[in-house]
């Protein structure tokens, strides 16, 4: 539905209404004597007034007459709709509302675009024939008739979206980004807009993935809108990984997180050659959408060493190295797990005999990481050492 609220000037004799709460009138000037006799009518060369209605509304065309009028009719272009009480139109939407000495009016129900055009009220007095004309304009709310389907492309590709709309007056369309990118923590460009029926993105990146909304409007009714999703595929990127420092007999956890579309598949290796599988040697592997965790319920000496995490999808592969490091027993109660990779402790040689019998013995030790000594106590996640 559309609404118009123009001011209705006084002293008009052709009245047109849409039947709205605040009706719109398209009126043609006339002049009346006190007796009510019409003395001036519309000349043939005078332009017709415009009467604007919205598609689907009813239009009422009313012609003010008086007792001097002997014949009256409403015509659409050259086709007679009603002549007095006689209906000439075969359109069931055209109905006679009033035929009296003061008014002759018809109704056109559910107006559509093909009803647009020139309408004439023609009436005959004893003196001469008179006519009054109005041009019916039908406005159509903006509607989206075609929009691109969801798009999936690889990063670096060009993307083109289409949004076609119809309406009268001609609508304008705008593409607006309305959601953050999918499956990435990268910032999104808020407030991105592109005017027109087409949205062109050259060499799209993962930050430009997400929902795009096409909004079209022409001022007749509320704007129409539809959304389309752009998915951008890209190879895995492994985020920072951390070593673990569990003591013997305690649980441990190594975590590997990777951002990728489609989501990455994870594999674990020990010493860069042996692939690990859950359920063997006290290991469990838990995979989620963006991360994989290698869990050891009870650490033994054979568990210490170098581990590799491999994340892959159809666009590429990424890997990272982690270590399970054995620490001195004194470190197990000194503080939380160390968050940075220390240099591996050197091999301690046999202590040489002191040069002097009175010299104190030489003691070799590998100190705990600094965070064990000074860091605040942090409870390991799920009872596993160093996440």
Automatic annotation (TrEMBL):
Membrane topology: Lipid-anchor; GPI-anchor
Domain of life: Eukaryota
Coiled coil: none
PROSITE patterns: IG_LIKE
Any Gene Ontology CC annotation: side of membrane
GO BP, one annotated term: cell adhesion
Ig-like domain sequence ranges: 34-135, 141-231, 236-325
Protein name as it appears in the record: Ig-like domain-containing protein
Species for this entry: Gopherus agassizii
């Amino acid at each position: 539905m559309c609404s118009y609220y123009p001011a209705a000037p006084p002293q008009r004799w052709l009245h047109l209404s849409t039947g709205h709460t605040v009706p719109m009138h398209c009126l043609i000037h006339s002049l009346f004597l006190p007796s009510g006799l019409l003395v001036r009518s519309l000349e043939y060369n005078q332009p017709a007034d415009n009467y604007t209605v919205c598609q689907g509304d009813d239009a009422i065309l009313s012609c003010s007459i008086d007792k001097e009028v002997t014949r009256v009719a409403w015509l659409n272009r050259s086709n007679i709709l009603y002549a007095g009480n006689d209906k000439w139109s075969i359109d069931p939407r055209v109905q006679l509302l009033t035929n009296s000495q003061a008014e002759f009016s018809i109704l056109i129900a559910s107006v559509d675009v093909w009803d647009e055009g020139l309408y004439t009220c023609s009436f005959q007095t004893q003196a001469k024939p008179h006519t009054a004309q109005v041009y019916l304009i039908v406005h159509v709310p903006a509607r989206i008739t075609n929009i691109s389907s969801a798009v999936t492309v690889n990063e670096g590709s060009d993307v083109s979206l289409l949004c076609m709309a119809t309406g009268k007056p001609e609508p304008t369309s705008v593409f607006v980004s309305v959601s953050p990118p999918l499956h990435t923590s990268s910032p999104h460009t808020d407030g991105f807009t592109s005017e027109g029926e087409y949205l062109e993105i050259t060499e799209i990146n993962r930050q430009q993935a997400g929902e795009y909304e096409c909004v079209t409007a022409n001022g007749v009714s509320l704007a129409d809108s539809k959304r389309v999703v752009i998915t951008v595929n890209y190879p895995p990127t492994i985020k920072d990984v951390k070593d673990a420092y569990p003591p013997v007999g305690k649980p441990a956890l190594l975590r590997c997180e990777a951002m990728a579309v489609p989501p990455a598949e994870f594999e674990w290796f020990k010493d860069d050659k042996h692939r690990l599988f859950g359920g063997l040697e006290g290991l469990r592997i838990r995979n989620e959408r963006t991360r994989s965790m290698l869990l050891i319920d009870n650490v033994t000496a054979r568990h210490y060493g170098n581990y590799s995490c491999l994340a892959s999808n159809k666009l590429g592969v990424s890997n990272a190295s982690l270590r399970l490091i054995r620490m001195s027993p004194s470190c197990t109660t000194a503080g939380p797990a160390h968050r940075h990779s220390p240099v591996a402790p050197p091999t301690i040689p046999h202590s040489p005999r002191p040069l002097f019998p009175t010299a104190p013995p030489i003691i070799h030790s590998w100190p705990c990481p600094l965070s064990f000594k000074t860091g605040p106590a942090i409870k390991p996640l799920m009872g596993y050492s160093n996440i």
